[in-house]
Amino acid sequence: MVDLTPPPGARDPDVGLPGYVPGWGASGVAWYRLHVTVTDPANDTLALSGPPDVDEGYDLYVNGTHLGHAGAPYSIQPRYFVLAPLQSATIALRVWAAPGEDGGIHIAPAIGELNAVRDQYALEWSRTLWGYIVDGIEPLAFVLLAVLAMALRQSWMATALLLSAMLRLNQVTFYWGQFETAGFAETLHAIIVPLIIGAWIMAWRAWFGVRRPSVIFIAVMVALMYATSWARILAALAMLAILVAGRRQWLAVIAAVLVSIGLFAPELSALHIAGIWFPFGVGVSRTQIAYAAFDLVLCALFAWTTFTSLRATSHSTS
Known about the structure:
- This protein has two domains: 28-129, Jelly Rolls; 133-317, no CATH class.
- It has nine helices and eleven strands.
- The chain has helices at residues 114-131, 133-151, 155-176, 182-208, 215-225, 230-245, 250-263, 265-270, 286-317, and strands at 28-37, 46-50, 54-55, 57-62, 65-71, 79-82, 88-97, 104-105, 110-113, 276-277, 284-285.
- A hairpin with a 2-residue loop joins strand 4 and strand 5 (65-71).
- Helix 4 (182-208) runs antiparallel to helix 5 (215-225) and helix 7 (250-263) packs antiparallel against helix 9.
- The radius of gyration is 24 Å and the shape is elongated.
């Protein structure tokens, strides 16, 4: 027997959907079955909302008839299924979870009148869209900042910004769309994250004029990140050393700290630093906030650098 009754105020840890419960904590396949009796439908058309949070996919059957599926290999998204007229039904969901997932249904499905289910569906999609709206804006900001970085002849910073834009955009394409598989998203993440960390270390090294760590050191460290998580700690220490060396440029240091909050999010979470908040019921992550602030600070840094450069040029020619 599985109880999907959530504790009061429970919400999923991603976008803030209500009604969240923990999973099995194991991989594999499980069946959820529920017998429903419908009394006095009054000609209402009934519908079933699919569970919007499942690890990591499900197939839905009503009285043995397969109505649809959602999830793996694509992202779980809100769905609903219109039901044929019925007096009773056995609703069954076949749920499967890959190794490393929590497993199971985290938010229970609901059966009801079609318009009410549609309203719930719209609410779930609204929170899903708003939960990733910042990830949709940040890639554009990163690309614009990359153009400014190239104008300032900061090629490493432009590279880091473009790689970061690619990763943030992937958040949107995966969770909003159904054309990118989970396997592709995981592979892209595994490949690009070490490159992003290495590019940002080189970017701040070039900005602050730090001679160490060397390019060879960064190349070895990035290679190690594909095999061991300890290299991420080494990368964090390298970033810290660069910030200490460039501490007199306080605006640049603030920008570097903000981007590092996003780069080393797993390490910060391991220290039990809060990773997400739910203003107005919508999830806003620590990384989203840090990157949004970073965009503003880096823009101010570029503006100040351009202003001081123009002023120095004006003084030298006068």
